[in-house]
Please model this.
Amino acid sequence: MSADFLSSDGSGAPPRSNGELVFAEPWESRAFGVAAALRDRGLFDWDEFRACLIAQIALWEKQHPPDEPFSYYGCWQRALVELLAQKGVCSARELEVREHALASRPAGHDHAQGHDHDQDHDHDP
Amino acid sequence: MADHDPASRKNALRIEALENLLAEKGLLAPAAVDAIIERYEQEIGPLNGAHVVARAWTDPAYKRRLLDDGTAAVAELGFGGPQGEHLVVVENGPRVHNVVVCTLCSCYPWPVLGLPPAWYKSPAYRSRVVREPRVVLREMGLEIDESVEIRVWDSSAEVRYLVLPERPAAAANLDEAALADWVTRDAMIGVGKPQAPQP
Model:
């Protein structure tokens, strides 16, 4: 059994505390929260999501050696993206374009809708 | 340090882009996501399950209802919601020790235990605890005598399991509130035993 089996938020965490760290990184909590919020809105139910999650986990396990670090929320997020594509809510292409737009923001630019539109020549007619 | 990991940066960018698109489409309010995260980080956790177990230890009628219909019995204490719709409570005893896993993914009774710890979701735990539960439990610090049968419950159907641990003899004279402090998350998954609270 690999060393990280018992580490991270495992037995070292205070098991009685409700405030223990359930997400290792902020993006994990967003991936969880987005899926839960969409399910609350009725875009899908947990059974549908679970089927996608199982498929993503099985795929990861097939493609990676057992000693490679496993990212559960990586699988979770791929399941969410896949399910939304299947439902026609958001295509892979659409997502890529938006990622590209966000990635090309100037460094330190926190807001998606900036105010420096004079610097943005992409939309010139 | 995680911020410099390319996979982590890619995931962070991806979820931001997704949230962004969904908000634009009117399908998602960022505040709703914030509220859900806060609830699972702050409110919904193993303390809920600890109250359930302590009640079962002190109230035989409640214990019967809990073993009979877990979902209904935890609802009596105000706990319910996603992943708790089909809750089955399995009782430990002198001859039987129960342990819970989800072999295919990470099914877990959220309303009473919160979100699962990392080891519960790891490929190692999920595959090994079914094959060699006694060995895995020993590695996790729990020695189960050879005379005790270990039952492994796979949550991968609709059912979510909660282990009702044995009430420790050392806690015989405590009331319900004090007993709840003995109930650990790990004891309710079956990879630990109730423990005296740390001072």
Observations:
- Chain B has a mean pLDDT of 93.
- Chain B has two domains: 2-42, 45-189.
- Chain B touches chain A through 62 residues (CB under 8 Å).
